[in-house]
Design a protein that fits this description.
GO terms for molecular function: ABC-type transporter activity; ATP binding; ATP hydrolysis activity. Pfam families: ABC_tran, TOBE_2. This is ABC transporter ATP-binding protein. It comes from Glutamicibacter ectropisis. Residues 5-243 form the ABC transporter domain. By secondary structure, the chain is of the alpha+beta class. The protein has two domains: 5-237, 3-Layer(aba) Sandwich (Rossmann fold); 248-358, OB fold (Dihydrolipoamide Acetyltransferase, E2P). The chain is built from eleven helices and 19 strands. The protein has helices at residues 45-53, 101-105, 107-111, 116-129, 145-158, 175-192, 203-209, 227-232, 237-242, 257-263, 355-358, and strands at residues 5-12, 22-29, 34-38, 60-65, 68-72, 77-78, 86-90, 163-167, 195-200, 212-217, 220-225, 249-252, 272-275, 280-283, 292-302, 307-312, 317-322, 333-338, 342-344. The strands form four sheets. The protein has a six-stranded mixed beta sheet, with helices on both faces. Helix 6 (175-192) links the parallel strand 8 and strand 9 (195-200). Helix 4 crosses helix 5. The longest helix has 18 residues, at 175-192. It is globular and about 75 Å long.
């Protein structure tokens, strides 16, 4: 199957900057995929999306969408943004305040010079898909944030895009509306089958929405994979530490006698090991064959549906999690036993199949 979007050697360097904002990105997005570009602020994810949309011009590389070359820097080719047939949804909903919902949603079909009957059909379908038909005669100023977001998405659908590009569209919503809209995006993707590229800095958002995640940092792709692959088998320390809350516990070998003793002869190239908080079991005695640390309980932090257990060995803090109230007290001496380890070399790259190493 031919990819819906292909990026080859895509790069962007802004005038006056020596460091590329996007650096040699190679990526294929399959038809019907829900792909999330994920990373911290300034990692290049939004710039990548804007180049696909035609709102930014690449400095290097090629962009192909639906078999059509949109950008080819070496060949001097560039298709203007308005001719790319891509749907854009941004953090700012950008609704026309003087137009009601139906008129906002019908704006693109009108610009496309479709007949009145065709426009009405597309608008009605988009309003029904987003379950906002009853809002058709209202104006943006009369809508909640979640309703405005639905109108912005309906407007994009009515334009019949081959790809939907979404740049942090949930950032302006409160926690409850964000949760509702995540479910809305999942339903929309299942119902329409559209190819979606979604930019976010929120790892939870990416994990719950994406069929695949592209983790970026400093303009480069760090890892591409399903949510499970990204979380369970991070390609490097950046991905390992970026994904997860609380973050992965990292122990530098050479600074921890217990870790050094346990790791001796197991993997001579490993320079650090990581343990996810949910993979730390708190016991009163070491478990034979398992990596464990003697630690002190320094804090018990309730989060509502679970607990975070803060631990210390006198030099470093560690975090464990529990779905039940822990039978522990602050100051208690315990053992933190690792059920799974992630090993990394001096360059931060993943070392081995950790399931075989943890026991």
């Amino acid at each position: 199957m031919e990819p819906m979007i292909t990026l080859r050697g895509l790069g962007k360097t802004y005038s006056g900057n020596h460091t590329p904002s996007v650096d040699s990105v190679d990526l294929e997005v399959q038809p019907g995929e829900f792909l999330c570009l994920l990373g911290p602020s300034g990692c290049g994810k939004s710039t990548t999306l804007r180049m696909i949309a035609g709102l930014e011009h690449p400095s290097t590389g090629q962009i192909v969408v639906g078999g059509t070359v949109f950008d080819d820097v070496a060949g001097g080719q560039c298709v203007p943004a308005e001719r790319r047939s891509l749907g854009l949804v941004f953090q700012n909903y950008a609704l026309w305040p003087h137009l009601n919902v139906k008129e906002n949603v019908g704006f693109a079909p009108r610009v496309q010079k479709l007949s009145k009957a065709e426009r009405a059909t597309l608008v009605d379908q988009a309003l029904q898909t987003l379950a906002i038909s009853e809002l058709a005669d209202r104006y943006p100023g009369e809508l909640s944030g979640g309703q405005q977001q639905r109108v912005a998405i309906a407007r994009t659908l009515a334009a019949r895009p081959q790809v939907m590009l979404l740049d942090e569209p949930l950032s302006n919503l409160d926690a409850r509306l964000r949760l509702e809209m995540r479910a809305e995006f999942q339903r929309l993707h299942r119902q329409t089958g559209n190819t979606m590229v979604f930019v976010t800095h929120d790892q939870f958002e990416a994990m719950t929405l994406a069929t695949r995640i592209v983790v970026m940092d400093q303009g480069r792709i760090q890892q591409v994979g399903t949510p499970s692959e990204i979380y369970d088998s991070p390609a490097n320390r950046f991905v390992a530490e970026f994904m997860g809350s609380p973050p992965m516990n990292i122990i530098e070998l050479g600074n921890n006698q217990d870790a050094d003793t346990w790791m001796k002869s197991r993997d001579s190239a490993a320079t650090s090991l990581g343990i996810r908080p949910e993979d730390l079991e708190i016991t009163t005695t070491p478990t034979p064959g398992k990596f464990s640390l003697p630690v002190t309980v320094s804090a018990l932090l309730p989060t509502g549906g679970s607990w975070i257990i803060e631990l210390t060995d006198g030099q470093q803090r560690y975090f464990a999690t529990s779905q039940q109230r822990p039978a522990l007290t602050e100051g208690q001496q315990v053992q933190a036993v690792a059920q799974k380890l992630h090993l990394f070399d001096a360059s931060g790259q993943r070392r081995t199949n950790v399931e075989a190493v943890a026991a």
